[in-house]
Amino acid sequence: MAIEKEKGEWIWMNEKFIKWREAKIHILSHVIHYGSSVFEGIRVYKTKNGPAVFRLNEHMDRLFNSARIYRMEIPYSKEKIRKVCIQTVKKNNFEECYIRPIVYRGYGEPGVDPRGCPVDVSIVVWNWGKYLGPEALEKGVDVMVSSWRRMAPDTFPAMAKSGGNYLNSQLIKMEALEYGFTEGLALDVYGFVSEGSGENIFLIKNKKLYTPSRGSSILPGVTRDAVITIAREFGYPVREEQIPREFLYIADEIFFTGSAAEITPIRSVDKVIVGEGKKGPITAQLQEQLLGITKGEIEDTHDWLTFACRE
After folding, report:
1. Is the dihedral of CA 249, 253, 257, 262 positive or negative?
2. Which of 85, 138, 145, 287 could serve as a FRET partner for 71 with CA atoms 20 to 30 Å apart?
3. What is the pLDDT of residues 239-251, one digit of tens each?
4. pLDDT one-digit tens code per residue, 6-60
5. CA-CA distance, 202 to 219, in Å (whole number)?
6. What are the Cα distances from residue 27, in Å, to 12, 31, 70, 105, 123?
């Protein structure tokens, strides 16, 4: 496995640090059969002041919100999980890495009703490079509009970052790769632009930013929120609204956002070149600002960084 090369030595599971290969769950755990998990993906950046966790508090808020939506009572406080995330980074001696806290239904009752199953918590760290490829941040990626739609209202809660939701994401991703694209882009049930398999999306037209609203079955991205903040500070209007598919083909610039994807330019959609077919000037400006903050090269005026060595 590729992840074996980048893995941490220790995984935190229910109050204990376990060796990577010894971290196991029972085959009858509810999560395996019914997808009953919620999780987060959090970047840790190498800076001159030590490892810096990007927007740790906001990720903790979303983790607990996801669990609340699925009626999962996390057996630890938000502050406890926050501290253990930092402890796990330090114990594995990572200068930069990716943190995956996951809350899941464990071994208990075998049926669909999850209430007889314990709620377990694990925290894993590994060194994850550029999610959409080593050159993606500079050269951009080619995407296709997927034949798979995002979930309709009152089916699956899009605002929860849950394991079960990512079955839909897998179909979108695999379809795109089969057709020779780097990523797929899903529409919502009404045919409006939603998001990628694991990323939010922004379109730029006439120096205005457009991004789907929460009503388009998106996950409220932590990086998405940071980009909205940065864009408005630069004076760019940002509109959260329904976006028709055809807007993708006439936008000046398009980019993905996400904890894994960071800010990744989109070079083409359905083989229609976006703008000049390279990273646009506004995308470059936003990317430079965001990555500058995360790497400690630009002042963090929003307190987005948590330095692991200080806690």
Report:
1. positive
2. 85
3. 999 999 999 999 9
4. 888 999 999 999 999 999 999 999 999 999 999 999 999 999 999 999 999 999 9
5. 14
6. 19, 9, 22, 12, 19
Structure-token pair, residue 4: 């074996």
Kindly give, in sequence order, each residue whose CB lies less than 8 Å from that of residue 54, ignoring residues fewer than 6 positions away. Answer: 42, 43, 44, 45, 259, 294, 304, 305
- Residues 89-128: pLDDT tens digits? 999 999 999 999 999 999 998 899 999 999 999 999 999 8
Element (H, E) at 234: none
Residues labelled catalytic: 161
Cβ-count burial 135-145 (b if 16+ within 10 Å, e if not): ebbeebbbbbb
CB 127 within 8 A of CB 45: no
Please name the amino acid found at residue 9.
Answer: E
The structural domains of the chain, ordered by start, are 2-126 (3.30.470.10), 136-294 (3.20.10.10)
Q: How far apart are CA 300 and CA 111, in angstroms?
A: 48
